[in-house]
C-alpha cells in the first residue's frame, strides 16, 4: 500500500546505442534489444527467471478507482472514462503489462476496486480484439492474515475481481509484521497450482529479498521481481543493496513511483504544486530545489525530441534489469509513456542526471523498506 512519495548500475544496456537520437514522442514504442532477456520481437523482457515475458515498461493502476490518495478523494464517470482511455492507449501503444493490487481502490466509500476496473477493461478489449495482457497484482500482508492459506484465499478474490483464471505475477505487497515464511509458502503453492505464472515481492529490503529467494528456491520456484520505489530522485535501491541483489540473483526490479508522482514531469512548479496528499510531499520549497534538475532533464530531452517524463523513465530503463511502472490516469499520459521506449540516453547523460539528482534532498520513502 503506497504510503510512499517520492547503482552503481551504470548504463550497461546503453552501450550499443550511445548517442542515438530518435523522435517518438506520443507514438507507439519502437523496440531496441537492450537489458534483460529479450523475447523474439525485442519489445519484451522476462520477469526474472520466470519465463514470463512483459513489456519493458508497465502501467500502474493504483489511481484507478482510488479515493484515498488520488483523484481529489472523488471518483466519477469522467475519471472512469479517463482510466479506460489510459488502458486503451497503453494497449494501442504496445504496452500490455499492468500493475494493480487488491487494496487499490478498495474498501473506502466512493472507491471502485482497481482490479475490478482493470478486469472490465481487459474483458472489453479481449471480446473485441482478443488482446492479451500481462497482469501483476498484489497480496496485502495485513497483520490479521496468517499463513499460506491466506495467500491463496486473497489470490482467489483477486482472480475473481479481475475475471481471469491466473495472473502473470503475484506479489507480496509489503513484508508481514509477524514474518514472511507462510506468505512465501503461499506464493509457492499458488505457483504450483497454476494460479500464478510468476511470483514477486514488494518493498523488500536486501536481506528479506535474499531470504525470500532462498526459501522459494527450495520449492523450485523462481523469485521473479521486487517492486520498490525507484526514480531519479529516489535512488534508495542503489544505496541499500536492493538493486545489486536483484542483479546478482536474476530478479527484475520493478520501479514504482518512477516519475515521483508527477514531480519529475516538470508540470508541477513552485507556483503550481500538486494538490491533495502529494502537496505535502512535493511542496513549493521542494519543487524550487528541483528546478535545476528539471531544467537539465528538459535540455537533454530536447536533443531527442523527448519530454521530461520520457527522459526520466528512460533513465530508469538505462540502469538495466529495471521495469518502470508509471501510473497513467488518462490516454495522453499513457501515450507519453510509450515514447520512453525505443531509444536510450547515453551513459554520460545517465551519470550527469544522477550527479545533479544527488543535490536534491530525497523525499521520504515507504517506511518498511528500512526495517
Ligand atoms: N508496491 C507499492 O508499494 C507501490 C507504491 C506506489 C505505487 N505502486 C505502483 O506503481 C505505480 C506508479 O506509481 P505512482 O502512481 O505512485 O507514481 P508515478 O507513476 O510516479 O506518478 C503517477 C502520477 O503522475 C502523474 N502523471 C502521469 N503521467 C504523467 C504525464 N505524462 N505528465 C504529467 N503527469 C503525469 C499523474 O498524476 P496527476 O495527473 O494527478 O499529476 C499520475 O497519477 C502505481 O500505479 C502502482 O501500480 C506500488
Automatic annotation (TrEMBL):
GO terms for cellular component: cytoplasm. Pfam families: Aldo_ket_red. Signal peptide: none annotated. Residues 56-356 form the NADP-dependent oxidoreductase domain. GO terms for molecular function: oxidoreductase activity. Coiled coil: none annotated. Belongs to the aldo/keto reductase family. This is NADP-dependent oxidoreductase domain-containing protein. The gene is LOC123044992.
Amino acid at each position: 500500500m503506497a504510503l510512499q512519495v517520492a547503482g552503481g548500475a551504470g548504463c550497461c544496456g546503453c552501450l550499443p546505442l550511445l548517442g542515438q537520437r530518435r523522435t517518438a514522442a506520443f507514438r507507439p514504442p519502437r523496440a531496441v534489444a537492450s537489458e534483460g532477456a529479450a523475447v523474439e520481437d525485442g519489445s519484451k523482457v522476462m520477469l526474472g527467471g520466470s519465463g514470463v515475458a512483459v513489456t519493458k515498461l508497465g502501467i500502474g493502476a493504483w489511481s484507478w478507482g482510488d479515493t484515498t490518495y488520488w483523484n481529489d478523494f472523488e471518483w466519477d464517470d469522467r475519471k472512469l472514462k479517463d482510466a479506460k482511455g489510459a488502458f486503451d492507449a497503453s494497449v494501442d501503444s504496445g504496452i500490455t503489462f499492468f500493475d494493480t493490487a487488491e487494496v487499490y481502490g478498495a474498501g473506502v466509500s466512493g472507491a471502485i476496486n482497481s482490479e475490478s476496473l482493470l478486469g472490465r477493461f481487459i474483458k472489453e478489449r479481449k471480446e473485441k480484439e482478443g488482446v492479451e495482457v500481462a497482469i501483476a497484482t498484489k497480496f496485502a500482508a495485513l497483520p490479521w492474515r496468517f499463513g499460506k492459506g491466506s495467500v491463496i484465499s486473497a489470490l482467489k478474490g483477486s482472480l475473481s475481481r479481475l475475471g481471469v483464471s491466473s495472473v502473470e505475477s503475484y506479489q507480496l505487497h509489503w513484508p508481514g509484521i509477524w514474518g514472511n515464511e507462510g506468505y512465501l509458502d503461499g506464493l509457492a503453492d499458488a505457483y504450483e497450482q497454476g494460479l500464478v505464472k510468476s511470483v514477486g515481492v514488494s518493498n523488500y529490503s536486501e536481506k528479506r529479498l535474499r531470504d525470500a529467494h532462498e526459501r522459494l528456491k527450495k520449492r523450485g520456484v523462481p523469485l521473479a521481481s521486487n517492486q520498490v520505489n525507484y526514480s531519479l530522485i529516489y535512488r534508495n535501491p542503489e544505496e541499500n543493496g536492493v538493486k545489486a541483489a536483484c542483479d546478482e540473483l536474476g530478479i527484475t526490479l520493478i520501479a514504482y513511483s518512477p516519475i515521483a508522482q508527477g514531480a519529475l514531469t516538470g508540470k508541477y512548479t513552485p507556483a503550481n504544486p500538486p494538490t491533495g496528499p502529494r502537496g505535502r510531499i512535493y511542496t513549493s520549497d521542494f519543487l524550487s530545489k528541483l528546478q535545476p534538475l528539471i531544467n537539465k532533464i528538459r535540455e537533454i530531452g530536447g536533443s531527442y525530441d523527448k519530454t521530461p517524463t520520457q527522459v526520466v523513465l528512460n533513465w530508469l530503463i538505462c540502469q538495466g534489469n529495471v521495469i518502470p511502472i508509471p501510473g497513467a490516469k488518462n490516454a495522453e499520459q499513457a501515450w507519453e509513456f510509450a515514447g520512453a521506449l525505443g531509444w536510450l540516453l547515453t551513459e554520460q547523460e545517465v551519470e550527469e542526471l544522477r550527479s545533479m539528482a544527488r543535490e536534491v534532498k530525497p523525499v521520504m520513502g515507504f517506511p518498511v523498506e528500512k526495517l
